[in-house]
Amino acid sequence: MISEPKEKIRVGEEIFTPLLSEEQIQSRIAELGAQLTIDYQGTVPVFIGVLNGSFLFMSDLIKCVELDCEIDFFKLSSYGDEKLSAGKVRMLKELNCDVNNRDIIIVEDIVDSGLSVKYIEDLFAEKNPKSMKVVSLLVKPKSLKYNVKIDYIGFDIPSEFVIGYGLDYAQKYRNLRSVYILSEESE
Ligand code: PRP
Q1: Is 98 a catalytic residue?
Q2: What is the 3-state secondary structure (H, E, C) of the chain?
Q3: Pocket around ligand 1 at a 6 A CB cut-off
Q4: Which CATH architecture has domain 9-186?
Q5: Considering the entire predicted model, what is its pTM?
Q6: Given 68, 81, 109, 112, which residue is catalytic?
Q7: pLDDT tens figures, 41-98
């Protein structure tokens, strides 16, 4: 079921307007899944989702990947309940699987400063994967402060706060099917 996005979402004095519709998101995910299916042919990659934000993207992405694959999740926190990055990363839930000599694909909902991906790259480099690539549904190119390579990108977006499709505002709004962006209309 494709739902029409709400015109506006009001959170206190802030107004969010539609940025990416459910249809745009699902169509791009199908393209990413098709590309991953080609690139990982003959392998059994491990998709590793970074909680909480990536849970919807992970779910929809692997349905578009026509390969035997495995999944796991771990949880970091860099933001707390604030809209701006706190500049540090904490590990809140460890990975369960052994990634030694495996092809791993890190699944992110959004790359903002790049701090989380940098932390993940350093963490996994010590675990000797066969290969490591990163797929992120959203990237804010103008916000990047760390030299990280995002191998598969859903959408480049402006450096404004976004919610929906896994992305939260104080832990809410993750269940929206579309992505909404903080609007200049906000008071
Ligand atoms: C968000 C997002 C990324 C990270 C991106 O996670 O899911 O992991 O921030 O920002 P960065 O590029 O500046 O590191 P967050 O810590 O908000 O946790 P959440 O996924 O549970 O919302």
Answers
A1: no
A2: CCCCCCCCEEECCEEEEEEECHHHHHHHHHHHHHHHHHHCCCCCCEEEEEECCCHHHHHHHHHCCCCCCEEEEEEEECCCCCCCCCCCCEEEECCCCCCCCCEEEEEEEEECCCHHHHHHHHHHHCCCCCEEEEEEEEECHHHCCCCCCCCEEEEECCCCCEEECCECECCECCCCCCEEEECCCCC
A3: 50-53, 76-79, 85, 108-116, 168
A4: 3-Layer(aba) Sandwich (3.40)
A5: 0.92
A6: 112
A7: 999 999 999 999 999 999 999 999 999 999 999 998 765 545 445 567 888 888 888 9
